[in-house]
UniProtKB/TrEMBL annotation:
Name of the protein in its database record: THO complex subunit 1 transcription elongation factor-domain-containing protein
Listed Basic and acidic residues bias regions: 571-581
A Pfam family annotated for this UniProt entry: efThoc1
Lineage: superkingdom: Eukaryota
Gene Ontology biological process: mRNA export from nucleus
GO cellular component terms given for this protein: THO complex part of transcription export complex
Segments traversing the membrane: none
UniProt-listed InterPro entries: THO_THOC1
Region (Disordered): 567-594
Organism for this UniProt entry: Arthrobotrys musiformis
């Protein structure tokens, strides 16, 4: 058996080399050559079916492919130029075509790519990963995260992520996550934290001696601190030392929020939040909100030189793992990015606490099926109110003296947290698929027919006019229909005069005098205003010149008095060369109408 397999592997390896040489003639100058779609597959790949006399052709082809891959990787210096990478990409294309023709196993391309990534440094892995991004449509055909090539794809991406630094290789990590997002559907459960586990391994260590010094021996904080007359600088140093311990100690709750289920821990967390917000506001007041971010290697903890081509914007958006040294803490607090980093962490934890409120848990339990992401702990009413208030305080701290940039940042954070809440709800509902089954042919036909019927014009109704009820009224001799028959009746087409509204207004005034409650008086005043407005509107059509004689008393009675030549109440008129004041008299017990 071995005597048959070894020659078969050798022949397959030579066939792979010959085919790969033909691929090079079709190569382009781009970093990732285009997929060879113009080749004659029957001419090239019939040889792979006849190159072995054994029945296990796929196993032999896998061994031959691995040997050729090792030769390519060892013979070329992958750090010298792009040409070795093009050869490697063409080799992967060759294996991909063999898998599409079902000559090799479907998972063989991913297995070879995984082995290549395991043997290369990070810089070369970035270039090799470009091949995966360029061939994503062909590589991910029929991929399933629970079997076959889907498992290998998840494994190689996860292993690559473990090798990367979250602070130094942020962009490459993002490329991998985007690739996984495009490769698997949104409802794929293999990439979901179904059990709701926290990253408790992410521990933050800091020097806790400063806390002990701040609490027990404040006179050691600074040589300027006196026993009875501490200086301002000494007090500031004492406050900063306490803030240092308070801020970094909250990282334990950030990494494991379930610690907050213990009341002492939650109470301490509340005090820490208040302390941090006050300290950040004080720093903004003292040093300004837009203080330039500290982007030096000392704050980043990077003992390396930055790439000369890295732009300033990339430095500002850099996602660091902050150092916890006390000597750097003063500079970190002044940094805008650092303050936002801490406040957003507080917001995330507060949102987690709000998800444990009775109201939200009742809303979630209606459709929740995944009990592993639901917690038995329920937030009390007092803690629920505190969480709502604390959320507003943190948002206000983000916006404090920040202008439009701060508002935009807080809105972005709010949008991200809202989407995250929706993802948590979806996960609690056991990751229901987003995909909908396509409509059946019968359903499409019925919908088309219903649409046609709904948009068809109604046939002409002919001479059908009116309604049966109107017809009966028209021919009923016992009813007076003269007003209906005659459309020239003056009472129907003429507007009433503005004087006709005066009598109803006087009646309203009398009703107001006998009203008992304030509500009745307000209703009567509203009716008087409505009727007065109608009367004055009619009067403005042909008596607009009278309005210039009205002062503040816009009433129908005043307008009538002006038109009749009678001075309104309180107006002075000239009689016999001297001034006289006319007042309108009213019946006993009735006040003048306004």
């Amino acid at each position: 058996m071995i005597q048959q397999v070894a020659p078969a592997i050798s022949r397959l390896k030579e066939s792979l080399k010959a085919t790969l040489a033909d691929f090079r003639s079709l190569s382009t100058s781009s970093d990732v050559p285009s997929f060879p779609t113009t080749i004659d597959r029957d001419k090239y790949f019939d040889t792979f079916k006849t190159s072995t006399e054994t029945n296990d052709t796929k196993s032999c082809l896998e061994c031959a492919s691995r040997e050729l891959l090792y030769d390519i990787v060892t013979d070329f210096d992958l750090e010298s130029s792009l040409e070795p990478f093009r050869t490697l990409y063409q080799f992967f294309d060759l294996i991909l075509i063999l898998s599409e023709l079902e000559i090799s196993d479907p998972q063989l391309p991913f297995a070879l790519i995984e082995e290549t990534l395991d043997t290369q440094p990070i810089d070369n892995c970035k270039r090799i990963f470009s091949y995966l991004e360029a061939r994503i449509e062909r590589l991910t055909v029929g991929v399933d995260g629970t079997k076959g090539k889907g498992i290998i794809l998840l494994r190689l991406c996860n292993e690559l992520l473990r090798r990367l630094s979250k602070s130094e290789d942020t962009v490459f990590c993002g490329r991998i996550f985007v690739f996984l997002t495009k490769s698997f559907p949104l409802s794929e459960r293999s990439g979901v934290n179904l059990r709701g586990e926290f990253h408790v391994e992410n521990k933050t260590t800091f020097d806790e001696r400063w806390c002990q010094l701040a609490e027990n021996q404040p006179d050691r904080m600074s040589p300027m601190i006196g026993e009875n007359d501490p200086s301002e600088a000494a007090l500031a140093a004492d406050a900063c030392n306490r803030l240092y311990t308070v801020l970094w100690s909250t990282q334990h709750e950030f990494a494991e929020p379930v610690r907050l289920f213990q009341k002492p821990v939650l109470d301490n967390f509340k005090e820490s939040l208040d302390t941090v917000i006050k300290a950040f506001r004080s720093s903004i007041d003292e040093h300004g909100h837009n203080a330039p971010p500290v982007t030096s290697d000392s704050r980043r903890g990077l003992k390396r030189k930055w790439d000369g081509e890295m732009k300033h914007d990339e430095l500002d958006s850099y996602n660091p793992k902050y150092l916890t040294s006390r000597e750097l803490f003063d500079l970190e607090v002044r940094d805008l990015v650092f303050r936002r980093h801490i406040l957003v962490q507080f917001l995330i934890v507060i949102e987690f606490l709000l998800s444990l409120s009775p109201k939200y848990k009742k809303y979630l339990e209606a459709e929740a099926k995944n009990r592993s992401v639901q917690f038995a702990y329920t937030l009390s009413e007092d803690d629920d109110r505190w969480a709502e208030t604390a959320k507003k305080d943190v948002v206000n701290a983000l916006n404090y003296k920040s202008g439009m940039d701060g508002l935009l940042f807080s809105r972005t954070v709010d949008s991200v947290l809202t989407r995250e809440k929706n993802w948590v709800k979806w996960k609690a509902e056991n990751c229901v698929s987003f995909e909908m089954d396509p409509a059946s042919t019968e359903h499409v036909a019925v919908s088309k027919l219903a649409g046609r019927e709904a948009t068809t014009l109604i046939n002409n109704l002919g001479k059908v006019v009116g309604a049966p009820a109107l017809t009966r009224v028209w021919f009923d001799d016992s009813l007076d229909v003269t007003a209906i028959r005659s459309n020239t009746e003056n009472s129907r087409i003429n507007l009433p005069t503005y004087r006709s509204y005066n009598k109803p207004i006087e009646g309203y005034h009398l009703d107001k005098d006998f009203a008992f409650t304030e509500q009745e008086k307000e209703d009567i005043d509203e009716s008087i205003s409505n009727v007065t407005w109608r009367s004055l509107r009619i009067a403005s059509r042909d008596r607009f010149q009278l309005f210039k004689n009205l002062d503040d008393d816009l009433s129908v009675k005043s307008l009538i008095a002006i038109e009749d030549g009678i001075a309104p109440a309180g107006k002075e008129t000239e009689k016999d060369g001297k001034k006289d004041t006319q007042t309108n008299t009213e019946p006993d017990g009735v006040k003048p109408m306004q």
